[in-house]
């Protein structure tokens, strides 16, 4: 296949400055691939970046900018191999026409973490859709996969929505793995966004004694029940810690996974956990959170575990979707053409959407 001269792409030039542009179609260098993108999900991080959040654009002395504009945005995509640079076939063990997904991180392969196999914590930390020229994103017709990408084959049984949901699902799997769920556990997932709702399905597969979603939308609590949650509580209405104690003989839950992105979700979790419980923090926050650390030490001896990205979990995500054990039905609520990305971002920012996927037109 000959690649067209130019393609359409969503280019970020600065906070709030996102445009659909016609740009040069990337060409593959040695050991590189070009993917034709079918779909790319809009992540809440895309919205935060668009809105100028400090964690992307830097915050004076606290941390440097993460983004390198101008860049094509989007990190939730999969695509078909349509061109290969010299040596790429052997390097990635792929053929033209294969459906593949690169992990969102492009490990440098040289830093302290990469050298120890902890590639998802790579010190350089380039991520598709955030660094122009280095890691261009998937809200485009084509994408260049650099040689240092971590690539996986995508099962042909997966739908377009499934393929676009692999990245968030893989992140949810890592968080649920971090929770180390046991049969006898009462597990609370706080925050029913796309990944929180995926976590409900994933935690259910671990067969805990009780599974609970906490969210401020009753329709999401209902969806979680469809996915196998035993209870759904709404903090606007329910006293969360009290409800959880009532279900656990007065003790509290063993596992609390926070996917709320809000400080109140953290405070609520420390309160809801029983002694010796496990707290998994998945969220990214706008503001620092203040809590009484004596709860972690003196009162409850808690395990506090962070969760970042998706080490070794893309193959699990692909397999669970292919076997029908996890579904995107109910989570992917909207599909919008790439050319209409502004409307897609608007819908994604609204409370009644869960996951919006941009579909690349076959022009
Ligand atoms: Zn994301
Ligand atoms: Zn590295």
Automatic annotation (TrEMBL):
Cited PANTHER family: L-THREONINE 3-DEHYDROGENASE
Enoyl reductase (ER) domain: residues covered: 14-358
InterPro entries linked: ADH-like_C, ADH-like_N, ADH_Zn_CS, ER, GroES-like_sf, NAD(P)-bd_dom_sf, Zn_alcohol_dh
PROSITE patterns: ADH_ZINC
Pfam families the record matches: ADH_N, ADH_zinc_N
GO molecular function: oxidoreductase activity, acting on the CH-OH group of donors, NAD or NADP as acceptor; zinc ion binding
Name of the molecule in the record: Alcohol dehydrogenase catalytic domain-containing protein
Cofactor or coenzyme needed: Zn(2+)
Keywords for this protein: Metal-binding, Oxidoreductase, Zinc
Family the UniProt entry places it in: Belongs to the zinc-containing alcohol dehydrogenase family.
Organism expressing this protein natively: Chromohalobacter moromii
